[in-house]
Design a protein that fits this description.
mainly beta; about 10% helix; Lipocalin
């Protein structure tokens, strides 16, 4: 039995160290959630949310072990028309009494390609929490050329049915399906 001890010890020492996910903080100045919907069959209205905060735990060696958690205030909505923005922030749509912040927390990641995947998570919005799936792309990972800091960038898309979230006023005349396009950069967190 004693002769096995050195071999077992050598195996542990020689075994590769499994890298843990690295924490990245969302760069609020380069993160947005865009949305678009059909307006009465005549045009496509677009808008965005900003002031996004959160963290990404990114495992370059095993992306499935990564995770993301982000939040943004409903008050950050911007469509280019102040009266519409105010209406969206009213009880007709994003009812402030039901929650002033939208959150997303991943629960699973599935790879679909070398730089693509599906991120399943819990989206909490307007007083409801539901599972959603994002089609995600790793746009880049490396050193930020100006900040000289490890950096990652992702984009993702999904489609939500707004009436399922208590946001269905004027549907179906104003499109019930809302296309979501997310763009996020994040820098390695200070240790």
């Amino acid at each position: 039995m004693k002769s096995l001890a050195p071999a077992v010890l050598a195996a542990f020492v020689a075994a590769p160290v499994l890298a843990a996910p690295v924490k990245y903080d969302v760069d609020t100045t380069h993160a947005q959630v865009g949305f678009s919907y059909n307006h009465l069959g005549f045009s496509t209205t677009t808008g965005m949310f900003g002031d996004i905060t959160g963290t990404i735990l990114f495992d370059k060696e095993d992306p499935v072990a990564s995770s993301v958690e982000v939040a943004f205030p409903v008050a950050s909505i911007l469509t280019g028309f102040a009266d519409r923005d105010a209406h969206f922030r009213s009880a007709d749509f994003f009812d402030p009494a039901k929650g002033a912040v939208v959150t997303f927390r991943s629960t699973a990641i599935e790879l679909t390609g070398e730089t693509t995947g599906r991120i399943t998570g819990e989206l909490a919005m307007n007083g409801m929490t539901k599972e959603v799936v994002l089609d995600a792309v790793l746009n880049g990972a490396g050193e930020h050329p100006m900040l000289k800091q490890d950096w990652v960038g992702f984009s993702a898309t999904t489609t939500l049915v707004r009436s399922e979230w208590g946001l269905g006023l004027y549907a179906p005349f104003i499109g019930d399906e809302v296309a979501i396009a997310i763009s996020i950069e994040a820098g390695k967190a200070a240790e």
